[in-house]
Protein backbone atom coordinates (compact mmCIF):
# COMPACT_ATOMS: atom_id res chain seq x y z
CA UNK A 1 0.00 0.00 0.00
CA UNK A 2 1.13 3.52 -0.74
CA UNK A 3 2.29 5.28 2.39
CA UNK A 4 1.27 8.93 2.97
CA UNK A 5 3.93 11.47 2.08
CA UNK A 6 5.37 13.33 5.03
CA UNK A 7 5.73 17.08 4.84
CA UNK A 8 9.51 16.91 5.18
CA UNK A 9 9.75 14.39 2.32
CA UNK A 10 7.60 16.56 0.08
CA UNK A 11 9.69 19.63 0.86
CA UNK A 12 12.85 17.69 0.11
CA UNK A 13 11.40 16.62 -3.25
CA UNK A 14 10.45 20.18 -4.11
CA UNK A 15 13.91 21.39 -3.12
CA UNK A 16 15.48 18.84 -5.47
CA UNK A 17 13.28 20.06 -8.32
CA UNK A 18 13.84 23.76 -7.63
CA UNK A 19 15.04 25.86 -10.54
CA UNK A 20 17.96 28.09 -9.48
CA UNK A 21 16.70 30.79 -11.85
CA UNK A 22 13.46 31.06 -9.88
CA UNK A 23 14.80 30.58 -6.35
CA UNK A 24 14.74 34.31 -5.74
CA UNK A 25 11.01 34.41 -6.45
CA UNK A 26 10.08 32.15 -3.54
CA UNK A 27 11.66 33.55 -0.36
CA UNK A 28 13.45 36.84 0.30
CA UNK A 29 17.09 36.89 1.25
CA UNK A 30 18.03 38.34 4.63
CA UNK A 31 20.53 41.16 4.47
CA UNK A 32 22.92 42.16 7.23
CA UNK A 33 21.31 44.23 9.95
CA UNK A 34 17.96 43.96 11.68
CA UNK A 35 15.07 42.71 9.53
CA UNK A 36 11.55 43.21 10.88
CA UNK A 37 9.04 40.64 9.64
CA UNK A 38 5.41 41.69 10.12
CA UNK A 39 2.94 38.83 9.57
CA UNK A 40 -0.71 39.58 9.00
CA UNK A 41 -3.36 37.25 10.32
CA UNK A 42 -1.49 35.30 13.00
CA UNK A 43 1.90 34.43 14.43
CA UNK A 44 3.12 32.89 11.17
CA UNK A 45 5.39 30.32 12.80
CA UNK A 46 5.95 28.25 9.60
CA UNK A 47 6.76 31.42 7.64
CA UNK A 48 9.33 32.55 10.18
CA UNK A 49 10.88 29.11 10.38
CA UNK A 50 10.99 28.83 6.58
CA UNK A 51 12.98 32.05 6.32
CA UNK A 52 15.41 30.81 8.97
CA UNK A 53 15.92 27.41 7.33
CA UNK A 54 16.26 28.97 3.87
CA UNK A 55 19.00 31.26 5.17
CA UNK A 56 20.84 28.36 6.78
CA UNK A 57 20.66 26.40 3.52
CA UNK A 58 22.45 29.24 1.74
CA UNK A 59 24.94 30.18 4.46
CA UNK A 60 27.26 28.30 6.80
CA UNK A 61 27.31 28.73 10.54
CA UNK A 62 24.83 28.28 13.36
CA UNK A 63 21.70 30.28 14.13
CA UNK A 64 21.00 31.61 17.63
CA UNK A 65 17.31 31.85 18.51
CA UNK A 66 16.01 33.79 21.53
CA UNK A 67 12.45 32.55 21.68
CA UNK A 68 9.20 33.90 23.11
CA UNK A 69 5.67 32.54 22.92
CA UNK A 70 6.70 29.19 21.47
CA UNK A 71 7.88 30.24 18.00
CA UNK A 72 10.75 27.73 18.11
CA UNK A 73 8.42 24.74 18.20
CA UNK A 74 10.27 21.64 17.05
CA UNK A 75 7.19 20.04 15.54
CA UNK A 76 6.92 22.40 12.59
CA UNK A 77 10.70 22.81 12.34
CA UNK A 78 11.11 19.06 11.84
CA UNK A 79 8.32 19.00 9.26
CA UNK A 80 9.64 21.94 7.26
CA UNK A 81 13.38 21.19 7.39
CA UNK A 82 14.57 19.26 4.31
CA UNK A 83 17.49 17.93 6.37
CA UNK A 84 17.74 17.13 10.07
CA UNK A 85 21.32 18.40 10.03
CA UNK A 86 19.95 21.92 9.70
CA UNK A 87 18.24 21.57 13.05
CA UNK A 88 21.57 20.81 14.74
CA UNK A 89 22.73 24.30 13.72
CA UNK A 90 19.91 26.09 15.55
CA UNK A 91 20.59 26.95 19.20
CA UNK A 92 17.52 28.03 21.17
CA UNK A 93 17.18 29.96 24.43
CA UNK A 94 13.76 30.78 25.88
CA UNK A 95 12.71 33.69 28.05
CA UNK A 96 9.44 33.31 29.92
CA UNK A 97 9.60 36.73 31.59
CA UNK A 98 10.90 40.10 30.53
CA UNK A 99 14.08 39.75 32.61
CA UNK A 100 14.71 36.21 31.38
CA UNK A 101 14.33 37.35 27.78
CA UNK A 102 16.63 40.32 28.28
CA UNK A 103 19.12 38.10 30.11
CA UNK A 104 19.15 35.62 27.22
CA UNK A 105 19.85 38.44 24.77
CA UNK A 106 22.66 39.77 26.97
CA UNK A 107 24.17 36.26 27.29
CA UNK A 108 24.20 35.65 23.55
CA UNK A 109 27.91 36.51 23.05
CA UNK A 110 28.85 33.93 25.70
CA UNK A 111 26.71 31.32 23.94
CA UNK A 112 28.36 32.17 20.63
CA UNK A 113 31.84 31.81 22.10
CA UNK A 114 30.92 28.48 23.67
CA UNK A 115 29.65 27.10 20.36
CA UNK A 116 32.76 28.33 18.54
CA UNK A 117 35.04 26.65 21.09
CA UNK A 118 33.06 23.42 20.87
CA UNK A 119 33.04 23.34 17.07
CA UNK A 120 36.76 24.05 16.74
CA UNK A 121 37.97 21.80 19.57
CA UNK A 122 39.79 18.51 18.97
CA UNK A 123 39.60 17.18 15.45
CA UNK A 124 36.88 19.64 14.47
CA UNK A 125 34.46 16.86 13.63
CA UNK A 126 31.58 18.77 15.16
CA UNK A 127 32.24 21.69 12.86
CA UNK A 128 32.57 19.70 9.66
CA UNK A 129 29.60 19.59 7.37
CA UNK A 130 28.65 19.99 3.78
CA UNK A 131 30.86 22.11 1.49
CA UNK A 132 30.43 25.83 2.00
CA UNK A 133 27.87 27.55 -0.21
CA UNK A 134 29.03 31.03 0.80
CA UNK A 135 32.68 32.04 0.78
CA UNK A 136 31.99 34.94 3.14
CA UNK A 137 30.66 32.78 5.98
CA UNK A 138 32.27 30.30 8.35
CA UNK A 139 30.78 27.09 9.75
CA UNK A 140 31.83 28.27 13.23
CA UNK A 141 30.67 31.89 13.46
CA UNK A 142 26.99 32.85 13.66
CA UNK A 143 24.99 33.02 10.44
CA UNK A 144 21.76 34.41 11.87
CA UNK A 145 20.11 35.64 15.07
CA UNK A 146 16.36 35.13 15.45
CA UNK A 147 14.24 36.97 18.01
CA UNK A 148 10.51 36.44 17.34
CA UNK A 149 7.86 38.36 19.29
CA UNK A 150 10.55 40.68 20.57
CA UNK A 151 7.92 42.78 22.38
CA UNK A 152 5.91 39.95 23.94
CA UNK A 153 7.52 39.54 27.35
CA UNK A 154 8.03 43.26 27.95
CA UNK A 155 4.40 43.94 27.14
CA UNK A 156 2.97 41.13 29.26
CA UNK A 157 5.15 41.32 32.39
CA UNK A 158 2.98 42.67 35.22
CA UNK A 159 6.00 43.39 37.39
CA UNK A 160 7.15 46.15 35.04
CA UNK A 161 5.64 49.57 34.71
CA UNK A 162 5.12 51.00 31.25
CA UNK A 163 8.24 53.15 31.43
CA UNK A 164 10.44 50.29 32.65
CA UNK A 165 8.99 47.96 30.01
CA UNK A 166 9.83 50.42 27.23
CA UNK A 167 13.32 50.93 28.64
CA UNK A 168 14.05 47.21 28.84
CA UNK A 169 12.76 46.65 25.32
CA UNK A 170 14.91 49.53 24.05
CA UNK A 171 17.99 47.96 25.67
CA UNK A 172 17.17 44.64 24.01
CA UNK A 173 16.89 46.31 20.60
CA UNK A 174 20.17 48.15 21.18
CA UNK A 175 21.90 44.86 21.99
CA UNK A 176 20.52 43.24 18.84
CA UNK A 177 21.70 46.17 16.72
CA UNK A 178 25.16 45.79 18.25
CA UNK A 179 25.22 42.06 17.46
CA UNK A 180 24.09 42.65 13.87
CA UNK A 181 26.93 45.10 13.33
CA UNK A 182 29.55 43.21 15.34
CA UNK A 183 28.95 39.80 13.75
CA UNK A 184 28.01 41.32 10.37
CA UNK A 185 24.97 39.05 10.07
CA UNK A 186 21.17 39.36 9.78
CA UNK A 187 19.01 39.62 12.87
CA UNK A 188 15.43 38.55 12.18
CA UNK A 189 12.74 39.88 14.54
CA UNK A 190 8.95 39.89 14.66
CA UNK A 191 6.47 41.72 16.88
CA UNK A 192 3.11 40.73 18.28
CA UNK A 193 1.34 43.99 17.59
CA UNK A 194 1.78 47.21 15.67
CA UNK A 195 1.23 50.11 18.02
CA UNK A 196 3.07 52.82 19.88
CA UNK A 197 4.85 50.33 22.12
CA UNK A 198 6.47 48.57 19.15
CA UNK A 199 7.29 51.65 17.09
CA UNK A 200 10.94 51.45 18.30
CA UNK A 201 11.18 48.00 16.70
CA UNK A 202 10.30 49.45 13.29
CA UNK A 203 12.63 52.40 13.90
CA UNK A 204 15.68 50.27 14.66
CA UNK A 205 15.05 47.86 11.77
CA UNK A 206 17.27 48.19 8.70
CA UNK A 207 14.90 46.14 6.52
CA UNK A 208 11.16 45.53 6.64
CA UNK A 209 9.25 42.52 5.29
CA UNK A 210 5.46 42.26 5.32
CA UNK A 211 3.69 38.94 4.91
CA UNK A 212 0.00 38.38 4.27
CA UNK A 213 -1.85 35.08 4.07
CA UNK A 214 -3.47 34.37 0.68
CA UNK A 215 -5.44 31.42 -0.61
CA UNK A 216 -2.39 30.18 -2.54
CA UNK A 217 0.08 30.72 0.28
CA UNK A 218 1.97 33.45 2.14
CA UNK A 219 2.85 36.52 0.10
CA UNK A 220 5.94 38.42 1.24
CA UNK A 221 6.71 41.99 0.18
CA UNK A 222 9.92 43.89 0.96
CA UNK A 223 12.08 46.68 -0.41
CA UNK A 224 13.62 44.45 -3.09
CA UNK A 225 11.31 41.43 -3.02
CA UNK A 226 7.74 40.50 -3.82
CA UNK A 227 6.21 37.02 -3.97
CA UNK A 228 4.85 36.55 -7.50
CA UNK A 229 4.73 32.78 -7.87
CA UNK A 230 3.92 29.76 -5.73
CA UNK A 231 5.59 26.37 -6.33
CA UNK A 232 3.63 23.19 -6.94
CA UNK A 233 4.66 19.65 -7.86
CA UNK A 234 6.59 18.79 -11.05
CA UNK A 235 8.48 22.08 -10.96
CA UNK A 236 5.42 24.11 -11.98
CA UNK A 237 4.36 27.43 -10.50
CA UNK A 238 1.02 29.09 -9.82
CA UNK A 239 0.64 32.83 -10.26
CA UNK A 240 -1.89 34.85 -8.31
CA UNK A 241 -0.83 38.49 -8.16
CA UNK A 242 -2.20 41.10 -10.56
CA UNK A 243 1.20 42.81 -10.81
CA UNK A 244 2.67 39.83 -12.63
CA UNK A 245 -0.22 39.64 -15.09
CA UNK A 246 0.06 43.35 -15.89
CA UNK A 247 3.78 42.95 -16.59
CA UNK A 248 3.19 39.85 -18.70
CA UNK A 249 0.40 41.37 -20.80
CA UNK A 250 2.33 44.62 -21.29
CA UNK A 251 5.30 42.64 -22.60
CA UNK A 252 3.01 40.60 -24.88
CA UNK A 253 1.36 43.77 -26.21
CA UNK A 254 4.74 45.24 -27.09
CA UNK A 255 5.72 41.99 -28.80
CA UNK A 256 2.67 42.03 -31.11
CA UNK A 257 2.90 45.76 -31.81
CA UNK A 258 0.15 47.00 -29.51
CA UNK A 259 1.11 50.00 -27.42
CA UNK A 260 0.39 49.17 -23.74
CA UNK A 261 -1.77 51.79 -22.10
CA UNK A 262 -2.84 52.38 -18.53
CA UNK A 263 -6.59 52.92 -18.11
CA UNK A 264 -7.32 56.49 -17.08
CA UNK A 265 -8.97 56.77 -13.71
CA UNK A 266 -12.65 57.48 -13.94
CA UNK A 267 -13.75 60.97 -12.92
CA UNK A 268 -16.67 60.71 -10.53
CA UNK A 269 -19.68 62.93 -10.82
CA UNK A 270 -20.51 65.32 -8.00
CA UNK A 271 -22.64 62.55 -6.56
CA UNK A 272 -19.57 60.28 -6.62
CA UNK A 273 -21.20 57.49 -8.68
CA UNK A 274 -19.47 57.62 -12.09
CA UNK A 275 -20.75 57.22 -15.64
CA UNK A 276 -23.12 54.94 -17.50
CA UNK A 277 -23.74 53.84 -21.09
CA UNK A 278 -27.16 54.12 -22.73
CA UNK A 279 -28.67 51.62 -25.17
CA UNK A 280 -27.46 53.84 -28.03
CA UNK A 281 -23.87 53.64 -26.77
CA UNK A 282 -23.81 57.17 -25.37
CA UNK A 283 -21.77 57.74 -22.23
CA UNK A 284 -23.67 59.82 -19.70
CA UNK A 285 -23.14 60.88 -16.10
CA UNK A 286 -24.83 58.59 -13.61
CA UNK A 287 -26.52 59.62 -10.39
CA UNK A 288 -27.42 57.61 -7.37
CA UNK A 289 -30.96 57.11 -8.76
CA UNK A 290 -31.12 55.12 -12.04
CA UNK A 291 -34.84 55.96 -12.45
CA UNK A 292 -33.96 59.64 -12.29
CA UNK A 293 -31.24 59.06 -14.90
CA UNK A 294 -33.76 57.54 -17.30
CA UNK A 295 -36.36 60.21 -16.53
CA UNK A 296 -34.09 63.16 -17.26
CA UNK A 297 -32.15 61.63 -20.20
CA UNK A 298 -32.58 63.52 -23.49
CA UNK A 299 -34.24 61.82 -26.42
CA UNK A 300 -36.15 59.30 -24.31
CA UNK A 301 -39.56 60.90 -24.88
CA UNK A 302 -40.32 61.43 -21.24
CA UNK A 303 -40.04 64.19 -18.66
UniProtKB/TrEMBL annotation:
InterPro entries: P-loop_NTPase. Residues 269-278 have a biased composition (Low complexity). Residues 1-23, 121-140, 258-278 are annotated as: Disordered. This is Rad51 protein. It comes from Halarchaeum rubridurum.
Amino acid sequence: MDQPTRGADRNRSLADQADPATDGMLLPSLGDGITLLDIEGGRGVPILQSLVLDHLLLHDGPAFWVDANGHATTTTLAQIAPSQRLLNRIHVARGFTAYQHYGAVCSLPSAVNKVIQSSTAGSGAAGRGEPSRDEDTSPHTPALIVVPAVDAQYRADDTLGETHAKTLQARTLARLATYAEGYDIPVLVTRNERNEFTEPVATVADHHLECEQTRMGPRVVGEDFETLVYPVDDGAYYQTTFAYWRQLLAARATQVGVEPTTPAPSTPTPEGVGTGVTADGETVAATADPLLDAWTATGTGGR
